Amino acid sequence: MKYRGRLFKHKDPFDRRGTDEIFLKAVRENCRFQYDHCRAYRKILEHYHFSPEMLEKYDDLERLPFLPTWVFKNHHLFSMPEKRMLIKATSSGTKGKFSRIGFEISGLWCGLKMVIRIGRWRKLFSLRPAHYIVLGYKPHKGNHTAVTKTAYGATCFTPALSRTFALKMRNDSYEPDLEGIIEAIVKHSKSRFPVRFMGFPSYLYFVLKMMEDRGIYVKLPRGSKILLGGGWKQFYTEQVDKQVLYELARKVLGVEETEIIEFFGAVEHPILYCDCPNHHFHVPVYSRVIIRNVDTLEPVKKGEAGLVNLLTPMVMATPILSIMTDDLGVLHEGSKCGCGVDSPYLEILGRVGLKDIKTCAAGAAEYLSQEA
After folding, report:
1. Helices 2-9 and 105-121 meet at what angle, rounded to 10?
2. Whole-angstrom Cα distance, residue 110 to residue 106?
3. What pLDDT is recorded for position 371?
4. Half-sphere CA count of 45, side-chain side, radius 13 A
5. How far is the CA of 322 from the CAs of 94, 156, 273, in angstroms?
6. What's the start-to-end Cα distance of the chain, in Å?
7. Are 133 and 164 in contact, with CB atoms under 8 Å apart?
8. Which of 93, 125, 275, 334 could be a cystine partner for 98, CB 3.0 to 4.6 Å?
């Protein structure tokens, strides 16, 4: 996997044009590994008469058969023995089903280098300790979700003085403790050390509204930040515009919009998408994004909406080279952002129902159902 190593060692995390050739070769070598070591994935490629050697030029990436995320929710596909996987992470689950993705040590090492470069770019690292408010799940031995691991991992950007969790395990299920979060915010507002939030935007909104309704306003110490990720999940009907949330954070916590940073990602595509100062998700060199027409699944032009197809050669343990999400999105020219990053940026518009996705992976799904 020498090309994967070169890709994740690249100094500029947004030098897309300078890494197109390396990315292509990294995908090709990863595709060959998956083809040789995952029987189900090889059958899927053969079903579409595709072989790794057909990835000859950059545009051929569009031809690489993709797997919808629901395939991983219904079938656990691995390309190496589980004993070689240092970590196995799961999605949060839909109707009781969840993806289970394995990560080998070399893939995790690539991920660490990615996080360090993206984190430096957004100035997330600091030697100054901070109190952490985790707007998500408190780690538990029975919780293997990637969102829990990611949120906890983000508390290592600085030395952690304390960690307060919004969701705690009680009687074998998670329950929200928003009152505890409010108490911690008020307490830490009197500290000389900054406070860092990490987690779901929905819980941040609920906490801020509760504080506003009660007339509780604080001024958090200088250097405090709000890091958001994971989406609104089951609270999508309560979702508010980003500017409403930003203004509420400024009003209740004294945290300006410049100190609010958002993340986007998925367990089936473990690439760190971190927004720029203009709150746009520029595509880093470690991945590529193809927007596909909902009906034909053909790639569309920049600026046009469609289904979001994500590609990365980061992981060997699981064949997640090219996955199709159920997100609708638009890929914009990076120059239109104005932040100075030229890489295209991804705008997520929302989600579509699985029954609305007429995917060309139907044959793959049929094959996998026969294998089960």
Report:
1. 20
2. 6
3. 46
4. 23
5. 21, 30, 16
6. 30
7. yes
8. 93
Q: Give the total residue count for the chain.
A: 372
Reading the block at residue 31, the tokens are 């595709």
Cβ neighbours of 57 (radius 10 Å): 9
CA–CA separation, 287 vs 335, rounded Å? 19
Distance CA 279, CA 260 (A): 9
Lowest mean pLDDT among 104-113, 212-221, 362-371: 362-371
Residue 217 neighbours by CB under 8 Å, 6+ apart: 211, 251, 252, 254
Q: Which residue carries 């538990």 as its tokens?
A: 140
Three-state SS for 365? helix
Average pLDDT, the chain: 90
Cα separation, 266 vs 91, whole angstroms:
8
Whose CA is closest to 64, among 49, 74, 83?
49
Half-sphere exposure of 217 (CA within 13 A, CB side): 7
What does the pLDDT read at residue 358? 44
With H, G, I as helix, E, B as strand and everything else as coil, classify residue 140: coil
Asked whether residue 157 carries a pLDDT value surpassing 70, the answer given is yes
* Range with lowest mean pLDDT among 4-18, 118-132, 252-266, 353-367: 353-367
Strands 225-228 and 260-266: parallel
Q: Alpha carbon of 140 to those of 29, 169, 254: distances in Å?
A: 37, 8, 32
Q: At 291, which amino acid appears?
A: I
Q: What is the C-alpha to C-alpha distance for residues 246 and 255, in angstroms, rounded to an integer? A: 8
Residue 350 belongs to what H/E stretch? strand 345-351
Alpha helices in the chain, H assignment, sequence order: 2-9, 16-37, 39-47, 69-74, 105-121, 146-154, 178-188, 201-213, 242-253, 362-371
